[in-house]
Design a protein that fits this description.
Low-confidence stretches: 1-7
CATH architecture of the largest domain: 3-Layer(aba) Sandwich
Oligomer: single chain
Order of helices and strands: EEEEEHEEHEHEHEHEEEHEEHEEE
CATH superfamily of the largest domain: Nucleotide-binding domain of ferredoxin-NADP reductase (FNR) module
Mean pLDDT: 90
Number of strands: 18
Largest sheet: 6 strands, antiparallel
Shape: globular
Length: 326
């Protein structure tokens, strides 16, 4: 939903400041190119950033949601990036103009929570930090754990250390003493009833937290997570299958070496995409018949088991044909 009921779907912004926060991490302060106030956002929100060269990437907002004069995003220069982070670090400079989307939030705080447990891994700190600052402003009970490879790679270390909620944050460094490393099981077991869990970071980190939480029978409704990327799965055993468009009855073959989005695009059927990794949900499509093979990191286990929707940017089919609501 667009703030204030506006029909505007994108914004023109200027890079007011680009700051090196830690090893391989930059923040970009974005302000309205026309000097106007920016649409409001809530903790956990992200922006679609339309980059030079035609790429679109999502970056979490990490400034105070009460601010209307700027958006702040943090970007890791990932060596295995598909081009987004490299473009941000090497081509985007102070003074440049960019187009961005209206803030969206698929990782919102549950304000009814008795307590919030915030777990951040690496650059996953961006939405988590925003949440911590919001919870502190509201006087809510929370606990934050921030895991990084080393202190030198810890973005916002001083900002957190000097904050009013610094006593609620524990840092965990991979190159530090064993006793200071995060014991996921111990932290999850120690929580009171009614605690909501929020986790963001690399896929391996999130998977470890989620599997532990589910092993300890955390209520699924109290588990919240957001991935920044996924491991695109391609298997030697992948075969071709058909998709049928419900509106026209047209049948399109998806070869083993192409995604559903690619096959549809070549057939003249366009689906809105953004991350193309099964992370953001922009291409979510209803499945009317057939069984999808889910390869995303967007749906919950319950949503996957319903088999009535899938992400065609990455997922495939277990059945010979999928009938799609297209």
């Amino acid at each position: 939903m667009v703030a204030g009921g506006s029909s505007v779907s994108s914004l023109r912004v200027r890079v007011a400041r680009k700051i090196f926060e830690a090893v391989d991490i930059c923040t970009f302060e974005l302000v309205s190119a026309g000097g106007d106030s920016l649409p409001a956002f809530s903790a956990g929100s992200h922006l679609d950033v339309y980059l030079p060269g035609g790429l679109t990437r999502q970056y979490s907002l990490c400034n105070d949601p009460a601010e209307s004069h700027r958006y702040l995003i943090g970007v890791l220069n990932d060596p295995v990036s598909r081009g987004g982070s490299k473009t941000m670090h090497e081509r985007v400079k102070e003074g440049d103009l960019l187009n961005v989307g209206i803030p969206k939030n698929h990782f919102a705080l549950a304000h009814e929570a008795g307590k919030s447990l915030l777990l951040a891994g690496g650059i996953g700190v961006t939405p988590i930090l925003c949440m911590a600052e919001r919870l502190a402003a509201l006087g809510k009970e929370f606990e934050m754990h921030y895991c990084t490879r080393s202190k030198g790679r810890t973005a916002f270390f001083e900002r957190i250390r000097r904050s009013a909620f610094a006593s609620k944050v524990l840092f965990h460094f991979d190159d530090g003493e064993p006793r200071q490393k995060l014991d996921i099981a111990a932290v999850l077991q120690a929580q009171q009833a009614g605690t909501h869990l929020y986790v963001c970071g690399p896929k391996g980190f999130i998977d470890a937290v989620l599997s532990t939480a589910r092993a300890y029978r955390w209520c699924e409704a109290q588990i919240h997570f957001e991935f920044f990327g996924s491991d695109m799965i391609k298997r030697d055993a992948d075969g071709s299958f058909e998709v049928k468009l419900a509106s026209s009855g047209r049948i399109i073959v998806v070869p083993k070496d192409k995604t559903v989005v690619e096959a549809l695009s070549e057939a003249g059927v366009k689906i809105q995409t953004s991350c193309e990794q099964g992370v953001c949900g922009a291409c979510l499509t209803r499945v009317l018949e057939g069984e999808p093979e889910h390869r995303d990191v967007y749906f919950t286990p319950e949503e996957r088991s319903a088999n009535n929707q899938f992400l065609p940017c990455c997922s495939r089919a277990k059945s010979a044909r999928l009938v799609l609501d297209l």
